Amino acid sequence: MAEEFASTRDTTEQTPQIVELERDIYGYCSVSDPNCGFVVGEEAVLAIDARATPMLAREMIAGIRTVTDRPIKYLFLTHYHAVRALGASAFGADLVFSSRDTLALLRERGQADMESEIGRFPRLFKGREEIPGLTFPDATFETELSFHLGDRELRFLRLGRAHTRGDTVCHIPDAGVVFAGDLVENRCGVYMGDAYVQDWMTTLERLRALDCQAAVPGRGAPMRSRQEIADAIDTTKDFIASIVGAVRHGLSLGRDLKGCYEEAERICNPRFGDWPIYVHALAFDVARVYDELRGLEHPRIWTDARDQELWRTLHG
């Protein structure tokens, strides 16, 4: 019998903390669970990502209420993954923003992704019985949208394909802050199962070019300086390149998927094995890189059944 997903053994609850980055700009950050954030305007609040369930979203809303009683009128989704989007209904936002590609991905694979992610990482979906279904954005954009929250400009930017094809960031130019979603991680495992892996490197350089002084990564501690942001970008690129190199080497030796996975373990375990979610993410990372290097441009849809099949193949 195949062993369970590594993530099902992760039962330690994490309590997110509110981190003030600049005036009226806050991260809602855990040790290694998905990070969110919010921006307080003169009359209203914009939340950035929604957590995985309405119950968890209400915890975030309670945190926002310790800072301000202004209404949370707006919600921005950095991408479509269930762990960031399924709490959206709890906000009751007047407008939900995302890239056009994120909306398309929600329509195409949002339901499958919900079932897949709940099966993979049950701890992150506390109160999942309350999820009413998918929440779709009201306002979408192709590459860039400038939104004014009072006197502050927020720039929603799609910098390129990376963690998904719809990835976007929230850039706040006057403060030099960016909420990067899962474009970049800070010493946490990088999930590449729905990625455009080789495009990701170029997209990260576009993120670097924003030249911010503070950033919230998808997972891990917020970065508080240009150097910390540069370091996180570099380690994210190193992680991705290491897996690509391992799989490419495996393919050159005529290895199958399991053989490439074993090659990735050999190369990457000593370097990244103690990073949060690394053990869980590696299987899905290798599967996507294996597909991409063999010519499959677009990621295949993950379903609960496909997840289980992959795990059996690699760990059975």
UniProtKB/TrEMBL annotation:
InterPro entries: Metallo-B-lactamas, NDM-1-like, RibonucZ/Hydroxyglut_hydro
CDD domains: metallo-hydrolase-like_MBL-fold
Domain of life: Bacteria
Stretches assigned to the Metallo-beta-lactamase domain: 33-219
Protein name per Swiss-Prot or TrEMBL: MBL fold metallo-hydrolase
Gene name linked to the record: cphA
